[in-house]
Amino acid sequence: MFENLSDRLQGVFKDLKGQGKLTEKNISDALRQVRIALLEADVSLPVAKAFIERVRERAVGQEVLNSLTPGQAVVGVVKEELEHLLGDQNDSLNLAVRPPAVVLMAGLQGSGKTTTVAKLARYLREREKKEVVVTSADIYRPAAIDQLETLAGEVGATFVPSESTEDPEAIAERAVEQARIRSADVVIVDTAGRLHIDEDLMQEIQGLQQALDPAETLLVADAMTGQDAVQTAEAFNGALDLTGVVLTKTDGDARGGAALSIRHVTGKPIKFLGVGEKTEALEPFHPDRLASRILGMGDVLSLVEEAQRTADEDQAEKLEKQLKSGKGMTLADFQDQLKQIKRMGGLTSILDKLPGGEKLAGGAAGMDETQINRMEAIINSMTPWERRHSDAIKASRKRRIASGSGTSVQEVNRLLKQFAQMQKAMKQMKKKGGMKKMMAQMGGGGGDQGFPF
Fold first, then answer.
1. Within 13 Å, how many C-alpha atoms sit on residue 443's CB side?
2. Is residue 249 a known part of a binding site?
3. Which pLDDT score is estimated for 116?
4. Cα–chain-centroid distance for residue 30?
5. 193 a known binding residue?
6. Domain 3-86 carries which CATH code?
7. 7 is known to lie in a ligand binding site
8. Are 168 and 205 in contact, with CB atoms under 8 Å apart?
9. Is 250 labeled as ligand-binding?
10. 9-23, 24-38, 222-236, 368-382: which range is least confident on average?
11. Angle in degrees, CA 110, 116, 119, rounded to 5
12. What does the DSSP 8-state code read for residue 220?
């Protein structure tokens, strides 16, 4: 998300920083380019105009023109105003109510609402340690009920069944009662969607909100629909007491205009971003971190948090002991590191959070999950002895390994070369603070083969 906007803004500010002295004219020229970039990113015209005026008012003031580094000062102003536009701070779910806390999910059909219910259930179970009950009040699509039942089993949430012949309010109230009996912390209620906004849809969701008095009413909006998502948010916000928005499919939205417009238009915070199809692909929305990423400053804090959340401490200690003993790393250890990359969302996700990393992310296409899976298959086709003695893998062994893994000898060679580079990097890391430190900072550095170490 924001690739195009990020590229345009970084180009504008690079030119601005190169000027020794700023005037109202060259600031105005730069802001004109920023405005064009915002509009091309599908930011609504009123939002873009209001943003530019706020930046202009500050940029032509004493804090910028009298600064020793005026170009950087302008960037600082833009970053702060971006954060303000996006919401200033992360708004977490308000679950500090008598349990079970009810979370009502609303949105149009096709926005990813049912999948988001499962993602949120997984997030609450794994990161917040909550017991979660889910149910579907979408009586018009039996497939949606079946889908949620399957996803609930995948994420470990309790599913309360429903039938298409039942009343939506009765379904939701039964789920709440079941949650009380089970002493669950949270109930997430999926609701019916429509292909477009209509009176029946709004009356039904309004009835559910009145009956349940939810702690959170979240609108699920598809970021790929751009300004349509903003208009949808406006309509739902007019009919419901929304507490926040979940933007889905942001991994496929290169423009990002919806994220920049929804908060301004509705006054409601974006609470989560859907960043992929899998149930773990849900991230809390941090305006300050996203503003940094838009301006090419990276999001190292999120990267470190993800590394800490997914890192295997036992694995880190084992590798550190191997290094200290002089035994070095094996291909089995290398495979563990590939799994760590997948747990962190893949190499592209890691690079995207590094300062300037978005320029490298395009070159990481060869290290996506499919490629990592092929590398793992190659290692799995090796014998335990070969994994410990990679330097002994010669022509005949390479042919056997390639045949067993469904790959080519060239791919086996490439893997061995990458592993050799990693061994070299590991020896250097030993001198700089140990394996634990490296795993906590995964994503920094980069070999010419695209491996993140």
1. 34
2. yes
3. 94
4. 30
5. yes
6. 1.20.120.140
7. no
8. no
9. yes
10. 9-23
11. 150
12. E
Residue 115 in marked binding region: no
Token pair listed for 112: 């990813």
- To the question of whether residue 147 is assigned a binding role by annotation, the answer is no
Q: Is 433 annotated as a binding residue?
A: no
CA distances from 408 to 61, 358, 375, 392 (A): 62, 30, 11, 18
Residue 111 assigned to a binding site: yes
Distance CA 239, CA 219 (A): 12
101-294 adopts what CATH topology?
A: Rossmann fold (3.40.50)
The per-residue pLDDT for 334 is 76
The closest of 261, 257, 197 to 232, measured between CA atoms, is 197
Q: Is 138 assigned to a binding site?
A: no
Rounded CA separation 432/201 (Å): 60
CA 271 to CA 258: how far, in whole Å? 14
Comparing C-alpha atoms, which of 108, 72, 124, 93 is closest to residue 228? 108
Alpha-carbon torsion, ordered 347, 353, 359, 362, to 10 deg: 30
Read off the pLDDT band of 184 (50, 70, 90). very high
Ligand-binding site membership of 112 (annotated): yes
Q: Is residue 225 part of an annotated ligand binding site?
A: no
Rounded to 5 degrees, φ, ψ at 18 are -75, -5
Judged against a pLDDT cut of 80, whether residue 251 lies above it is answered with no
Model confidence pLDDT, tens digit, residues 315-332? 555 555 555 544 566 787
Q: How far is it, in rounded angstroms, from Cα 208 to Cα 53?
A: 41
CATH placement of domain 300-440 = 1.10.260.30
Contact 255, 269 (CB under 8 A): no
Judge whether 447 is annotated as a binding position: no
Q: What are the extents of the domains in the chain?
A: 3-86, 101-294, 300-440
Q: Tell me, what's the pLDDT at 63?
A: 58
Q: Does the annotation list 194 as a binding residue?
A: yes
Residues 174 and 346: their CA atoms lie apart, in Å, by 40
What does the pLDDT look like over 159-177, one tens digit per residue?
999 988 889 999 999 999 9
Q: How does pLDDT run across 206-225, given as a tens digit for each residue?
A: 999 999 999 999 999 888 87
Closest-CA residue to 369 (of 241, 244, 257, 280): 280
